[in-house]
Structure formats: structure tokens, C-alpha cells
Design brief:
Chain B: Residues 4-238 form the ABC transporter domain. Chain B: Keywords: Amino-acid transport, ATP-binding, Cell membrane, Membrane, Nucleotide-binding, Transport. Chain B: It is found in: Cell membrane. Chain B: Belongs to the ABC transporter superfamily. The complex is a heterodimer. By secondary structure, chain A is mainly α. Chain A has a single domain (6-215), classed as MetI-like fold (Orthogonal Bundle). Chain A is 83% helix and 0% strand. Chain A has eight helices and no strands. Chain A is flat. Chain A starts with 5 loop residues before the first helix and ends with a helix. The relative contact order of chain B is 0.17. In chain B, strands 6-7-8-3-9-10 form a six-stranded mixed β-sheet, with helices on both faces. Chain B has a four-stranded antiparallel β-sheet with strand order 2-1-4-5, with helices on one face. In chain B, a hairpin with a 2-residue loop joins strand 1 (4-13) and strand 2 (16-26). By secondary structure, chain B is α/β, with parallel strands linked by helices. In chain B, helix 4 crosses helix 5 (141-153) and helix 5 runs parallel beside helix 6 (171-186). Classes of the chains: A mainly alpha, B alpha/beta. Chain A binds chain B through residues 115-116, 118-126, 129, 133-134, 137-138, 141, and chain B through 50, 52, 75-79, 82-83, 85, 87, 89-93, 102-103, 106-107, 151, 155.
């Protein structure tokens, strides 16, 4: 047994970069997918709407922990594909992000008045141009505060990846705690690091909300 | 040949039939004003001319081309038939210039400098050249509606539709919008208006169409129609709006 040292603190901070990697993977792959889902959910085609809705129901009805387990333990069993933890966790976080951001963005799109689509259509704009130039910028403004809010959830959610042995901040905390037998101290530091990472975002989300509400 | 030819058009929302066989000709350069109580189908008819609503029966042709919501060149058609709405429907996140040039830039790929010149040109016609860099929220209702008209004019439409464009305005702002429309009428624009502004209908329109219960009840030149309404429905309508 050894006592908690500066080296332990540095290893916790080092593990934070893997938390960041997970967040970036989730956003990088999840955000485009979220946009696709939001467009499907608001599309005129019933088949597209139903497909997207079914996907959302399925994903949102399962806890993130369940998704992680499924992709890490389930894929080898069901599909015979052995996955490194980063890939399995990355896919689970991507799916999770896509479904929640997709719903947030759908709300933003639907909050733009129907007349805006109509006015844009009456100017002869293509459906894509109507969305890209008229609807999306307004939807984005409205969806930005909840989007940043979700980002906070996402950062905290990555801690579940520790379950499948992926060494990010929470898992690093477990390892340091096991080595030092100082769980209270170690987990308090871990919690403080999460808090420090999320606080700026929370504040940003709040200021956006005030500013955007004031602007309307 | 008429610019707009409406033949026996029917249209229902669910089980409610709002247009029950409407026929109407609109010739080039005519100012046609559609009047009638709310629920008489006048706004619906206007929206059908622009393919915003699908008709169930009959036919509408504009410049000889049948109008359908699934027509292949719908986007070109929409640029030839402008529409101005009651609620202006400007894009709130864009400046006046961008509101006006968005469609020409995307559809006709005009250059940026030409876009600015185009915006200034149409804004001068509605008397708002000095507002080119403003955002819609910085303008009064009357000014917003004039920008909406300018945005339409920038597409160089052959026909313009006006759907109760002064109904959402404070009374003191109605005049400036009507004046712009009078100027356009004088310059020969073919216009179809749904309006409650009887003064405008009387003084500017070349034809009045009175709609009642989804039908064209009476039509004719304003002087004739207002002086000698043939049906009791039009008589009571004129009495009620006076």
C-alpha cells in the first residue's frame, strides 16, 4: 500500500484525456447521425419517421450502461465480432448521443414556425435550401442551450465506460483508489475534476439561454 | 388568353368543402380583389393559385401551364408567381438585404454586388432603401410588410398574390403598404388580392370578386358591383363592412 501522491493526481488528469476522446468520438459520429434522425423525424415520409422513431424508442429505453454492455459483451456473442473497448464504448456513446441530440434538434426544427418553410418554398428555394438557410439557423439557436446541457450529461455519462474496463477518468479513479486505499479522497478528486470540466459548459448553457430568450 | 384561368375548382379540408366549383379569369395587368366573409374560401383560392394547396377537382392554369403541387418545374413557377402573406414571414435571422437576395443568389446564382444592387432597386420601390442592413425585428409591421413585397419583387414575378397583407397591421401602418401596392398596380403588375380594405378594392381594383360559401357569388368592376349588388348576400356584406 502507498499513499496518494502527485503522480496519482497526474494519472487521473491523464485519464481525463480519454474522457475527452470519448466525448469527441460521441459528438463527431453522433452529431451527424443526430441531424439525420432529426430530419427523418420531421420528414414528410411516414416510413422515414417511423424508422427514426423506432430507433429512438429502442435506444432511449435502454440505459447507457446497457448499451455499453451490449456493444462490448453482446457483439462478440451475437455477431462474432471481438471489439477493442474503445470501439465498443465509442459505438455505444455515438448511438446514445445521436438519439438524445436528435430529439433535441427535432424540437428545435419543429419550433420554427411552419410559415417559414412556406415562405421559403414560395421563393422557389429547394427543400434542402429551405432547411439549410431558413430553418436550420433558427432551429439551431433555439436548440443550442439544451444541446450544451446534453454535453454535460455526455461528459458525465462517459464514466460508465469504466464498467467494461476502458480507462478513462472514472476507471483511473478506481485504479488509484485500489492502490492507495483512499477511496474517499480519490473519488472526491475525480468528482471535482468532472465538476471542473462541466461547470464552464453549464454556465455557458445558462448564459445562452438568457441571451437567446432576451433576443427574441 | 387569360394569365390565370381557374375552372371549376373544388377543394375540401376533411369533410368540409371550402371551394365548390370556382371559376375565374385573370388577365394580364388586372388588379383582382377577392372579398367576402371569413370562411368564404378566398384565402384558400389564392393559395391554390400558387400551388400551396392541392385542388381536388377542376383546373388552374397560369400562363397556359396547369398548376399542380407536384408539377415538375414548381420552383420556377413559384418565382413567377409571388405571394405576400398576412404575417410577413420575413426570415428573422437575416438582414433585409439577405432576405431579398437569398432566393436570387441561390436560384439564379447572381453575384454578391449584383445582389446588393437588386436589393436596393426593389427597396427603393417600396421606399425602404435606407433599411437595407436592418433586421426584421428592427422594423415596424408596415415596414416589414413592404420588405416582404420587395423580396417578392426581386424575383421579377409575372403575377403577385396578396393574402390579407394589411390585416395584421396597426391601422396607422396600413396606408403605407396600400400605397406601395397602388404604385405596383400603376406600373402594370398583375395582382390578385384577398383583402378587407374596401377603399382599396373600390379605387384601385379593376375587378371585384365576391366569394360566398365557397363560390364566386358575384364579380364585376368595382363601381358596378358596389353600386348595384345583385344578391342579398353581397348587399349585406357591403353594409357590414361599411
Amino acid at each position: 500500500m502507498r499513499s496518494f501522491s502527485l503522480g496519482d493526481l497526474l494519472s487521473l488528469l491523464g485519464a481525463l484525456q480519454w474522457t475527452a476522446v470519448l466525448v469527441l468520438i460521441a459528438l463527431g459520429f453522433g452529431a451527424p447521425l443526430a441531424l439525420l434522425l432529426a430530419l427523418m423525424r420531421t420528414s414528410a415520409s411516414r416510413a422515414l419517421r417511423w424508422t427514426a422513431t423506432a430507433f429512438l424508442q429502442l435506444v432511449q429505453g435502454v440505459p447507457l450502461l446497457g448499451l455499453l454492455m451490449f456493444f462490448y459483451f453482446g457483439m462478440p456473442v451475437f455477431l462474432g465480432i471481438e471489439m477493442p473497448p474503445l470501439v465498443a464504448v465509442g459505438i455505444a456513446m455515438t448511438v446514445y448521443t445521436a438519439s438524445f441530440l436528435g430529439e433535441i434538434w427535432r424540437g428545435g426544427i419543429e419550433a420554427v414556425k411552419h410559415e417559414q418553410w412556406e415562405a421559403a418554398a414560395c421563393l422557389g428555394l429547394s427543400t434542402w435550401h429551405q432547411f439549410r438557410y431558413v430553418i436550420a439557423p433558427q432551429a439551431f439557436r433555439m436548440a443550442l442551450p439544451p444541446t450544451v446541457g446534453f454535453l454535460v450529461q455526455l461528459i458525465k455519462g462517459t464514466s460508465l465506460a469504466s464498467i467494461v474496463g476502458f480507462v478513462e477518468l472514472a476507471r483511473a479513479g478506481q485504479l488509484v483508489s485500489a492502490a492507495t486505499f483512499q477511496p474517499l479522497l480519490v473519488y472526491s478528486i475525480v468528482a471535482a475534476i468532472y465538476f471542473a470540466a462541466c461547470l464552464p459548459l453549464t454556465l455557458w448553457a445558462r448564459s445562452l439561454e438568457v441571451r437567446l430568450n432576451g433576443a427574441r | 388568353m387569360a394569365l390565370v384561368d381557374i375552372r371549376n375548382v373544388t377543394k375540401s379540408y376533411g369533410s368540409t368543402q371550402v371551394l365548390k366549383g370556382v371559376s375565374l379569369d385573370i388577365k394580364e395587368g388586372e388588379i383582382v380583389t377577392i372579398i367576402g366573409k371569413s370562411g368564404s374560401g378566398k384565402s384558400t383560392l389564392l393559395r391554390c393559385i400558387n400551388a400551396l394547396e392541392r385542388i381536388d377537382g377542376g383546373e388552374i392554369t397560369v400562363e397556359g401551364q396547369p398548376v399542380r403541387t407536384d408539377m415538375p418545374n414548381l420552383r420556377d413557377f413559384r418565382q413567377r408567381v409571388g405571394i405576400v402573406f398576412q404575417a410577413f414571414n420575413l426570415f428573422p435571422h437575416m438582414t433585409v438585404e439577405r432576405n431579398i437576395t437569398l432566393a436570387p443568389v441561390l436560384n439564379k446564382r447572381i453575384a454578391k454586388a449584383d445582389g446588393r444592387a437588386l436589393a436596393l432597386d426593389v427597396l427603393e420601390r417600396v421606399g425602404l432603401a435606407d433599411k437595407i442592413d436592418a433586421y426584421p425585428a428592427q422594423l415596424s409591421g408596415g415596414q416589414q410588410q413592404r420588405v416582404a413585397i420587395a423580396r417578392c419583387l426581386a424575383m421579377r414575378p409575372h403575377l403577385m398574390l396578396f393574402d390579407e397583407v394589411t390585416s395584421a397591421l396597426d391601422p396607422e401602418l396600413v396606408g403605407e403598404v396600400l400605397k406601395v401596392m397602388e404604385d405596383m398596380a400603376r406600373q402594370g403588375m398583375t395582382m390578385v388580392l384577398v383583402t378587407h380594405e374596401m377603399g382599396f378594392a373600390r379605387n384601385v381594383a379593376s375587378k371585384i370578386v365576391f366569394m360566398h360559401q365557397g363560390r364566386v357569388w358575384e364579380e364585376g368592376p368595382p363601381a358596378e358591383l358596389f353600386a348595384n349588388p345583385r344578391t342579398p348576400e353581397l348587399q349585406s356584406f357591403i353594409a357590414s363592412v361599411r
